[in-house]
Amino acid sequence: MTPRLPTGSRPVLAGVGAFVVVFVLIVGGTLGVHALTVGRSSPSPTASPTSGPTATPSETESEDAAQDEEWCWTPTRFDRTSTNPPDRLRGGGLELEIPDVFNDRRDMSYAAFTNDSVLAAAHVEEDWSSTVGVAKVEWQPGIEYPGDKEASSRILDCLVSKSSLWGDTTGRELEDEKTTEVTVDGMKGYRTSGKLTFDSSSLKKTSASGLTVIVVDTPEGPSVFVSESAIGVEEHEKAAEQAENSLSGLT
């Protein structure tokens, strides 16, 4: 489904008939401030080349610390920068041919680690749809990109764990998950797929979805293809396969 479509100083002394001036020179040391690293802070004193006020901690130290990783991070702002060519969808550095029965157009902002996304959807029943789409992979700022293989499996697992996508279905289980190396239009990548089974009192045509996530290393950066097809609706299953086979770099 697309499925259902965050030090004061003292005064100088003066005597009668005599004039004495006392100079007091205070040579101070300043405390050097070191940037924080994850889990530890280790400031140490260093000599200042000139006298002056003691250095104060930076107000932005906490911003310099590495962020905590979110397992299913999504960009705070959706930014659609690509334009679809005729009869094709384009997102990031990937394109696909639009299957005939996939007439609805939406973004794919619900998918973790994606931006510049677009998808095509085909109605199944009720508010359930099959979808195919492409997007730019955008990893969480401050967190090192784990590579295309890890990204493909993470994005799929995040789709499965996002309960709001799957409506009132219960007993959801991901079966046959596997990740394999692939080549798309000469570009290397990884494909993660699986079958999500579920129970539903309202759906009659399907009780499982075929999920596929392909992350490809394109000249425009990591990009992703995502499909979700209603198993049991043969037209949608074939259309999702057709869309995957049509994947290419930018035309």
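The above is record 1. Record 2 follows with the same two-line structure.
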Amino acid sequence: MKLLILDAGHCLSLALAREANRRSDTELVIEAGLELAPGRLEELAPDALVIPPLARPISAEPAAVIAHAEAVEACLVACREARIPLVWCVSDQLYEDGFDEPIDEHVIPAPRDESLRRLILTGDRIRQQHPLHLIVRLGPLFALEGAEAWLSELLDSLMAGDEVRAAEDEIFCPTSADAAAMALLGMLQQLHCGADAWGAYHLAGTEPVSAYTFASMVRTQLATRLEGAGESVELGTLKALKYHHGHPLRRVLNCRRVLEAFGVHQKPWRLEVGRMLDSWCRDRAEEPA
């Protein structure tokens, strides 16, 4: 199976590359940006085109959100003409106001923000115009490298002694970029082998948590590992923020359909964070003095 991946520096693109390198059944071609040169799909003839998510669209500049939507729609036109499947990953932040209950796949986001609604229009066009599609909604991604790699940003801030400000009244399911990449490749292999399961799916980690609790857990685990290695580091402090006036906003994705259709189980984010911190500490120990 050959896949064309856009946005080479994105943490999900890097995770897909790592996962593909461990397999013998997947070839990746990775483009630097989101733009496709004319005839590029026909030249490469991939089995699918994969577009990583625009992370944190709620806080992104409207121009950046619109540019992302327009780039995805240009890819849609090219995929439809070449009859190549399109995989578009999107942030759970499109569920702007959240839900009290876990959010099922059939629930299409209906944000109030105008630029976010532009992304919903893009999703509507994909569903209407190209049957061979996956729209994969992801929780907040974390990884050790790449653009929007939340965990690496958090570690850099803590190690620099900076204050980390995080909301304690927004609840979501942090999602390992590595776990998401493994799931996506497994899903695409099944579709490549004839599975008829196109549509929208949710991929997220288990155990809903606030950004503040996630950051607190990372800080505690990091301090434990550094102390065990004999290092004395004054880590940055945490500050809890509240945005929702006593009623936490919940964006918890129900990932039942991806289990039923593809057998994909969600990975606990705590285990993934622990694994990544172990890797980060090993790399740190191997750095020249």
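The mean pLDDT is 94.
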